[in-house]
């Protein structure tokens, strides 16, 4: 009983200890309405909208889509290199579904990347395939600015629309920890001033525009970091496995959020 009581006291004391976790912050982003020009504009990145589909009246086995004889409940999946990057909402009881549903971020489709579009019929116990497109890079007829009607295996059609990618102003550091006199990067966008400057997770920012993080304080440093690219301010950074800081210059290009 004495041993059990001692263990209980130790557990209670451990629970009562203050957390050692560091506060996490993110830098701000503001959407821009024009994407012309600017350094770092990525290639093979698009703003993609799932527009509509034309589905055969009967499934591939020449049977009704639903047991009751009704039409299918289509939805769309988008894959890149066999990884699911997006799934649309479901349109109920129709062979002519219309989504006009944009992906939440730009999608990057390099020419050598496997790209797959799948249309499925959702039912109560799962889903059945309606049609599939397989290729590398964007479909040949999916030119930016036009609706592209794509033939699927199974003889149905899916229409998508690609546009120029959406851009944001900012530095592109999506998460960092405030550790006293340092801001430690947790994650960042690759197509951003921070990503293009070679910053990586684990880098420690110790000064912004010549002012130390300690002098700026937590709130001041967060605001200064968000504006560093726009103000053309140099960051002083200590990289992993290094003890001395080095200067990092940021371009004034946009942040391109990608999937």
List its traits.
259 residues; Pdz3 Domain; Immunoglobulin-like; 2 domains; five-stranded antiparallel β-sheet; 3 helices; 18 strands
Describe the structure.
The chain is mainly β. It folds into 2 domains: 20-38 and 168-248, Roll (Pdz3 Domain); 45-163, Immunoglobulin-like (Sandwich), CATH 2.60.40. 13% of the residues lie in helices and 38% in strands. The protein contains 3 helices and 18 strands. It has helices at residues 2-16, 193-196, 213-227, and strands at 24-25, 30-32, 45-54, 74-80, 83-87, 98-102, 107-108, 114-123, 126-136, 147-151, 157-163, 167-169, 173-179, 182-188, 204-208, 211-212, 235-238, 246-248. The strands form 4 sheets. Strands 1, 13, 14, 15, 16, 17 and 18 form a 7-stranded antiparallel sheet that branches. Strands 3, 6, 7, 10 and 11 form a 5-stranded antiparallel sheet that branches. Strands 5-4-8-9 form a 4-stranded antiparallel sheet, with no helix packed on it. Strand 8 (114-123) and strand 9 form a beta hairpin. The longest helix is centred in the N-terminal third of the chain and has 15 residues, at 2-16. It is elongated, with a radius of gyration of 25 Å.
Topology of helices and strands:
Elements: H1 2-16, E1 24-25, E2 30-32, E3 45-54, E4 74-80, E5 83-87, E6 98-102, E7 107-108, E8 114-123, E9 126-136, E10 147-151, E11 157-163, E12 167-169, E13 173-179, E14 182-188, H2 193-196, E15 204-208, E16 211-212, H3 213-227, E17 235-238, E18 246-248
Antiparallel strand pairs: 1-13, 2-12, 3-6, 3-7, 3-11, 4-5, 4-8, 8-9, 10-11, 13-14, 14-15, 15-16, 15-17, 17-18
Q: Looking at CATH, which topology of the largest domain would you report?
A: Immunoglobulin-like
**Element order: H for helix, E for strand:** HEEEEEEEEEEEEEEHEEHEE
Low-pLDDT runs: 2-19
Q: Into how many domains do the coordinates divide?
A: 2
CATH superfamily of the largest domain: C2 domain
Q: What is the residue-averaged pLDDT?
A: 90
Question: What fraction of the residues are assigned to beta strands by DSSP?
Answer: 35-45%
Count of strand segments: 18
The chain-level structural class is mainly beta
Largest sheet: 7 strands, antiparallel
Query: What is the CATH C-level name of the largest domain?
Result: Mainly Beta
């Amino acid at each position: 009983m004495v041993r059990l009581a001692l263990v209980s006291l130790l557990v209670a004391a451990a629970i009562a200890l203050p957390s050692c976790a560091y506060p996490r912050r993110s830098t701000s982003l503001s959407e821009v309405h024009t994407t012309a020009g600017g350094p770092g504009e990525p290639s093979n990145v698009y703003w993609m909208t799932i527009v509509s589909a034309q589905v055969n009246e009967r499934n591939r086995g020449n049977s009704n889509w639903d047991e009751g004889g009704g039409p299918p409940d289509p939805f769309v999946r988008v894959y890149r290199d066999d990884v699911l990057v997006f799934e649309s909402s479901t349109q109920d009881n129709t062979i002519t579904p219309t989504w006009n549903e944009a992906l939440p971020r730009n999608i990057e489709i390099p020419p050598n990347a496997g790209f797959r579009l799948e249309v499925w019929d959702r039912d109560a116990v799962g889903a059945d395939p309606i049609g599939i497109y397989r290729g590398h890079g964007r479909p040949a007829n999916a030119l930016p600015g036009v609706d592209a009607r794509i033939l699927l295996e199974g003889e149905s059609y899916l229409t998508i629309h690609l546009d120029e990618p959406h851009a944001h102003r900012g530095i592109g550091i999506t998460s960092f920890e405030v550790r006293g006199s340092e801001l430690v990067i947790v994650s960042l966008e690759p197509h951003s001033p921070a990503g293009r400057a070679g910053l990586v997770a684990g880098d420690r920012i110790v000064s912004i525009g010549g002012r130390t993080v300690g002098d700026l304080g937590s709130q001041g440093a967060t605001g200064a970091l968000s504006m560093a690219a726009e103000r053309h301010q140099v960051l002083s950074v200590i990289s992993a496995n290094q003890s001395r800081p080095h200067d990092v210059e940021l371009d004034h290009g946009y942040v391109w959020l990608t999937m």
